Amino acid sequence: MSKTTKTEFSVFISSVMSELKSERRAVKDYITNDTILHQFFKDIFLFEDLPARKKNAQATYLSEVADRDIYLGLFGKKYGPKDSGGLSPTHREFEKAIDTDREVLIYIVDSSSDSREPDMSELIKQAEEIVTRKRVNDIPALLREVYASLADFLRDRGLLNITSFESSPCTGATLKDVALSHIREFLNVAESKGRLNYKGPITVNAVLKNFRLLIEKKPSNAAIILFGKSPATFTDKSQIHCLQFSGTTKQKPILAQNVFEGTVFEMIDSSLEFVTRKLPSHVGIASSGAAAPVQPEIPYSVIREAIVNAVAHRDYSSTGFIQVIVFSDRVEIWNPGKLPADLTEAELREPHGPIPRNPLIAEPLFRTGYAERAGTGTTDMIADCRKVGIPEPDFKQRGPHFVVTLWRDWLTEEFLNSLHLNDSQQKAIIFIKHKGSISNAEYRNLSGVTDRTALRHLKDLENKGLVEKAGSKGRTTNYQLSRRKPDINPTNPT
User: Fold this and answer.
1) Residue-number span of the structural domain to which 428 is assigned
2) Are 252 and 397 part of one and the same domain?
3) Which of 129, 220, 284, 362 gives a 20 to 30 Å CA spacing to 211?
């Protein structure tokens, strides 16, 4: 009778409970939401997730260690409180993992030895004599190393035979096809943003190796589209198609069309410039002591976030490509791929953890300030649109593409006149643009009408799809701009 191969594994995440809380949670969220890893690692133990009544039983933790396949230890500066035998809970858990022959992965977080407690230094020394450990300085580096370790774990068991696009060697490319000037620019920008403290030699080989962009001494696909001299020579994944149409549908005439090629950073910058040049601009609100900035109709930050997300999260195994389309009433960003299995369109509007589909590409984008690792990108986009009085973005899966729709300021005087609004209703729309919402009382004060008339006017605006209710009900109801323009039929790229 043949032996069944195990395909699901469990992980125990250990660290001193008084530190590294964010790191512990980030590791669990990353494993749980990664497209590949979550298929194999479905049981992730965290101290924080235990019921309160069980959190003081050290025997429970040791039992949990013995029941898991992998012990993942995060060692920082603190050692933790000692028991009667002179050892901390973290030390006990580590020894239990060794004694029960668990797979042991150790990560030294904040690798500087300054201010590290002596007992923790001794534990690290003990661990180094038994297992291979990795030293990391921040959460992005930690997640990168965790991914690499767990991928190796699966490969050793014959369970991970498909290599992702970003971590596959780039066919035909050598180190000579990587631009040292691009790498130097990346390091300078990342350090100026305070997101990198690189101490190694500044050579193509050393930097690519540091960011896991070398595969058997050859540059990976990620290395080429991040730092290549001519990425388009080796892959069609290094291009973004940008178009502009005169109306609200994808029909000729095409007012403008460009295919932008180059590194990830060059593609993003060129696409962003394309969009902002096609949108009217206005003078924003000046900060203290500074000149008022000129902003496009859709906030610069929102357009950039949408394009960066498309590059960072696209499905690079797809034969499709990213499209950025400017219409008269909106901008659409079409991205080949789907949301992670555990994330819905609705959840994009709420705080959620970072779920990088392509961590090797996403990390340099984070280091240089193009992207964040807090999972706040989509909620920031919503907030920034609200600030300038335009509808919130739409997030929608349309077949094999994930589409982000950024609405322009379609509530123009011409459009409002076409709806035959009265003067009071037009004033209300302007009021909402500036204040974010309007109540019945505010409408009455603005227009001088009665309570009943105000309700009728606001209901009419709601029926026309211009506003929607927000907050409480009845006379205390607030009305805000609708998130999307009425009677729009989304178009599909061909």
Assistant:
1) 413-481
2) yes
3) 129
